Amino acid sequence: MSAMADDLLTYLAPATIVTWHRPCTRFELDQPAWRQLVMQMEQADWSLLALWADPDWIHMALRDEVEGGVAVASCPVVDGAYPAVSPVRPGAIRLERAIRDLWGHRAEGAVDTRPWLDHGRWPDRQPFSAQPVATPPDAATAEPYPFLPVTGDGLHQVPVGPIHAGIIEPGHFRFTANGETVVRLEARLGWVHKGIEGLMQGQMPADAARLACRISGDSAVAHSLAFARAAEAAADIRPPPRADWLRAVMAELERIANHLGDIGAVCNDVAFAFMHAECGGLRELCLRAAADCFGHRLMFDQVVPGGIASDIDADRVGILRRLVHGIRPQFRRLVDVYDGQASLADRLVGTGTVSPGLVHRFAAGGYVGRAALRAVDARKAAPYPPYDKLDWPIPLFGEGDVNARVWVRIREVEASLDLIDQLLDGLPSGPVATAMPARGGEGLALVEGFRGEIMTWVRLDHAGRVARCHPRDPSWFQWPLLEAAIEGNIIADFPACNKSFNCSYAGVDL
Amino acid sequence: MSQWPITLRRLLTPSLTEAAPPASAEGIAALAASVEAAAKKRLGRSLALRAVDAGSCNGCELELHALANVFHDLERLGLKFVASPRHADVLLVTGPIAANMREALHRAIDATPDPKWVVAVGSCAAGQGVFAGAHGVVGALSAVAPVDLVIPGCPPTPAQLLGGLRCLLDS
Q: In chain A, what are the domains?
């Protein structure tokens, strides 16, 4: 290792290169070299993209924030342990805890060693390890979960969930408050853990894609796309150009629909129901156009490894054009309403603030990052087709509050409407799918979902089956910041803060 | 700008709300066997719904939300979502019943006063979902609680949800 290098790829260059990893390079390190890498990360501006495990290895994807290079570093697990990353990258804390629960690998020197996904309710503990340990069937044996201590005068706790009051995914929020003011929020998740990564193993990519699509239903297109691109990289194939362009149409339509839902819901959480009703109507128009054009309201199972499930004809292109042209003027009027309401500004400006420094430390993407000066967008950071041929602005705000996160969404709805126009104008002709060969390899894909950057890593075995897949949802690095955002706010503002993050529970519980 | 020009326009143009689909035939057949006439009489024609996500990918939740939008407007049918199982007549359960959610689900069912209906919403709760066999799931809702109505679909569309829920009102 060249200890002086600040450039990630130069730093890793002396390590062993894994030749079957695409498109970026994977380097195999030994434990001393990994320990050195972690020390180097303390000073280098390399953001953590993901941390995941194999039976005998730990893998970490990093991006050089200055040079833009992406690389994977791998470290062997020795005697069930590896040097922890969490002391230098707090975003790794929950990932290390999840790895411990699923694989049994211990992160030596970890910041937090409490369980995360394992609530003591699975038939086996460490289900992905070589020797899973049977859980005693009696639920009473589940260890109590120690929440972080909070001390001081006049504090009280408000436990919320896992089942919440609305139609929301389950999670437990432990508020410690002084009067109305939140002193600490700690989230405990894992309630909807199913075991998707385990289920994918041994499946053909076409079957595993149905699981990838359902990692987080609201990001069906984005997660399907990340999985498909990773599997295609592993098999060293490219989908036809028309598939790339139609995938992007679906991805932008998904982004618009979700942002519309969120903008309305944030306003609804501060009792401005008008916006919720209007945005909900526009969202419904998007879902209906999706059903008419792609056969499914949420576009499930439309992006598949090798391309897309079915082509669209000129009539359907017309449906999408009418949708975009119908929504644009209506949305413009709603933005004027949002901008002009003193009652909304009163509740949303300055509420739930996250500092740019914290956003950078966790490498949080999407509207959480872009509301606090972190501009990283996978569509521009490492442009995948067809985004390398498109032109659109990345909105950037500095306030880091609920209002800024709403404005990022507003600007992204506008940009995505324009992108769909550009995509339909430039739609290439030709086939929309190519066959996946029965070939082995490893692939990594970065895709911008509506929440932010998804990273999916896939290893295919020699028969082309999924040997290992790790999908890293953007919410992994956004959930911890919600706890920071609510500090010093009143409990009554939590719903609006939470909705402005709209993190996925299913996407991180897996 | 205020919201009043848009509100005025809405008042002067036809309603966006569409006619609700009829009760689904399969749903009525399934219900007839499981729900007593006495229970139906007591519940009347207005039902309070409570959603419980027991491991869903959140696709079902998106479509449950869509029931409340201006196109579907489920409240005109006497159906409304409530915040607590204690206020509910109907529990709408989604997901392949994650083992981690099992106890919370049972507590929600126990907290719902009788007479009550438990509905399996979506293919996962119906036992035909893609997550069957994963180490963290129990399986179909019927494996952990008596089920009165099944509304399959991945996820069920708002029209399918309304068709299923109308069985509870019209049967």
A: 8-134 (3.30.460.80), 155-188 (no CATH), 196-475+489-509 (1.10.645.10)
